[in-house]
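Suppose you are handed only these lines of text.
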Amino acid sequence: MSNVHELNFLKEKIQELKDEGVYRKLPVLETANEPEVTLNGKKVINLSSNNYLGFANHPRLKRASIEAVEKYGVGAGAVRTIIGNMDIHEELEKVLSEFKREEAAFLFQSGFNCNAGTIQAITQKGDIIISDELNHASIIDGARLSRADKAIYKHSDMDSLEQVLKENRDKYENILIITDGVFSMDGDIAKLPEIVELAEKYEAMTYVDDAHGSGVLGESGRGTVDHFGLHGRVDFSMGTLSKAIGVIGGYVAGSKTMYEWLSHRARPILFSTALPPAAVGAITEALKMLMESTEYTDKLWDNAKYFKSKLGSLGFNTGKSETPITPVIIGDEAKTMEFSRKLLENGVYVSGIVFPTVAKGTGRVRCMVTAAHTKDQLDKAVEVFETVGKEMNLL
Ligand SMILES: *Cc1c(COP(=O)(O)O)cnc(C)c1O
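From them, the structure of the protein bound to pyridoxal-5'-phosphate can be written out as follows.
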């Protein structure tokens, strides 16, 4: 008999990963998340972060973070419902609701647990959740935690969505349609105006996950709802504070009623400690910076357009992206991973993304341009893309 502590069942699964050639070690970052970093001991241009605005190591955010630590310490000390709800948490929620142009915003410890906690709190048995097939894993997990039934519609396919709505309207009490605002693998934007119209026609609620839209789309990064001018017509406007905002955390913006209910029933708020003061201080500063000026989002879009057009003119296929997310579609899985590896050898880090994260035969490297990149860094990266592309006969 083998010893139970040896975890042999896991060892077998790990061996399977190795046999399939998908076993890997996590890359180790030895510097702050900047346009140029030291990764696994090598200096490279970073085209892989979600740090869209370059806020993750911004001096103003760092200063605000340190001030919050000096005054409030390093930990909130409890869940929000007991004694972890500090005045700075509530102040941040007020700034967030102003930024998002909604009545209220409810703060979570991460985007992931915001979806996990909110979706189950606002749905129940007798309801149905209707979800885009390409929605993020945290939405899928959130829906799994709910007692509501679930249905999927084809990616951004409004006929498919209407079909699902038609079939189910009379069978359920409440309907919740959920979509990513910006889809992270292709960079395309949800057809939110059409989704909202269908929702209103079939009396359904709408929920937008704006992880990649917050800080990117809309006036000074207010998000997809702002981009389309749909304020007041999307019930739950979820966002993360970990990507463009550069820190950590999540929130859902919407009505005061939503706020009241979540403060009683969102499980991550009842059972997990509140965000630490350092994060709250930095996030509040980031939002103030965005409300003062559009310079950060302007720079992001300027860089994204510059990089995309350069790659496009070399002949790379950058797909249907409408945002700074720039996929370079290679197709074949092995070739994609080889391309990513060769880019890294030549000093550019872009992660390769293949099946099952994206459909078979649509392997890509996903470039994430930020406001902090210089044109010189982007030019250097494009040069490396050209060299490696030619070497591999991709151009
Ligand atoms: C990253 C991401 C999340 C999770 O956000 P975290 O703040 O990193 O937990 C949720 N939804 C989508 C669409 C994301 O891309």
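What can we learn from it? The pocket of pyridoxal-5'-phosphate is lined by residues 110-112, 115, 136, 138, 180, 184, 209, 211-212, 240, 242, 250 (CB under 6 Å). The chain has a mean pLDDT of 96.
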